[in-house]
Design goal:
Distance between the termini: 22 Å
Number of helices: 15
Number of strands: 12
Number of domains: 2
Length: 406
């Protein structure tokens, strides 16, 4: 069996899922594994491992480590679940210049990997062009039967309040303002007092509709708490608007999985991503990105408990059939047989220690320069309050993923 080291810059859902898969493989006597935040990595970890799985790597540290490990015969697997090269320089809240530097290091890392592990074949087809190795493997998240909520139905949809949920991981309002906000106006007039709207991770300005709609804003929460919350609230409809081109094409259909686990029938943008898993009005509704189509799709679900019931039952059957640990792990070890047999050459511990410390030093400079760049943007825009909130968000996000979740 191979010794597998999982490294990540931050503990978040993708790294948590990779660790979970490794634990199950170790339990099946397929691998031995360790996982480490890159800043906690020690020379003995490098000497011990045969295979390194790096998660969402875009930093100076992972570039330096990939380059060195390639030179000493380690097998490097990079897992990606987003199109980081597709982000523009102003994406998110981190300001100008943030992503261009990370994209530079991601391209360097791609030159040293042996295998690309992705959750979307479209993402692999794009990124493999930057790799010296043209090998990629498509995998999925693991969903066990006991994780999936028992279904509960709101059988009198019009007489009871229909609970609709929308969440956005990065807090951006672009798609909401473009597509959903015009629909809210119509729904507030047609279903006055009969709809509850829940927004997770975003806070649109809907003050003018508070008399007609029951509106709730839910702040960001720990991922394990998020999953429990979604099940507990018994939402009737989940919304998943998504751009039909560009960055969104290469994402993972995690909203389909998370809504289905929680027993929520979803409405999804009719795009390449959701076309991979959704059959219209079978396990969800596919909807073109216009306010008119989103209105009619939401209305269809509101007024048909039967359609909601059919879609979520079929979605959960699909999850049972395709995302169990046996299916996902058997495919992974078949597609990456190195996990079971690859052995790296013995390395020089002293040389490894020196190089790792040099890499760490460079990484801390990389992080410092990143924060200085972010600070300069906020100061230039005279947004001190925004800068303070950004520090708080970073601290909250860092501490949201605890060792308990591993």
């Amino acid at each position: 069996m191979s010794n597998v080291l999982i490294v990540y810059e931050m503990l978040e859902p993708c790294s948590i899922e990779m660790i979970r898969m490794a634990k199950l493989l170790e339990k099946q006597d397929k691998i031995f594994f360790r996982d480490k935040l890159i800043r906690h990595l020690e020379p003995e970890d490098i000497c011990w491992c045969d295979i390194i799985i790096s998660v969402r790597s875009t930093s100076f540290f992972e570039w330096g480590l990939a380059k060195y490990c390639h030179s000493i015969g380690k097998y490097w697997i990079l897992i990606l679940d987003d199109d980081f090269l597709g982000l523009n320089n102003e994406y998110g809240k981190d300001g100008e210049g943030y992503w261009s530097l990370r994209q530079k290091y991601l391209k360097k890392i791609l030159q040293y990997i042996d295998c690309l592990l992705v959750v979307n074949p479209l993402l692999a087809q794009k990124y493999i062009e930057f790799c010296n190795s043209k090998r990629y493997v498509v995998t999925n998240t693991i969903i066990e039967r006991e994780e999936i909520a028992n279904l509960q139905y709101n059988n009198n949809a019009i007489s009871n309040k229909v609970k609709i949920v929308l969440y956005v991981n990065d807090g951006t309002l672009d798609m909401f303002n473009k597509i959903i906000k015009p629909v809210v106006k119509i729904l507030s007039a047609q279903y006055n007092g009969k709809i509850s709207l829940y927004f997770l991770g975003l806070k649109p300005d809907l003050e003018e509709y508070t008399q007609q709609l029951d509106i709730h804003y839910v702040p960001h929460m720990v991922y394990s708490d998020f999953k429990k919350y979604m099940i507990k609230e018994n939402f009737d409809i989940g919304l998943a608007p998504l751009e039909s081109q560009g960055f969104s094409t290469y994402k993972y259909f995690n909203k389909y999985i998370e809504y289905t686990i929680a027993g929520i029938p979803g409405i999804y943008s009719n795009c390449k991503l959701y076309n991979q898993v959704i059959i219209n009005e079978y396990n969800g509704i596919l909807c073109n990105n216009t306010p008119e189509e989103w209105y009619f799709s939401i209305k269809k679900y509101i007024e048909s408990c039967h359609l909601r019931k059919v879609c979520i039952e079929n979605a959960q059957k699909h999850i049972y059939k395709n995302f169990s640990s046996d299916i996902v792990l058997n495919k992974l070890v078949k597609d990456v047989p190195e996990l079971g047999f690859f052995k790296a050459p013995t390395v020089n511990p002293l040389k490894t220690k020196i190089i790792l410390y040099l890499i760490k030093f460079g990484y801390y400079i990389f992080r410092l320069l990143g924060w200085l760049r972010i600070i300069s943007v906020y100061v230039k825009n005279r947004n001190v309050k925004g800068l303070v909130n950004r520090f708080r968000e970073k601290f909250l996000k860092k501490n949201n993923y605890t060792s308990e979740e591993k």
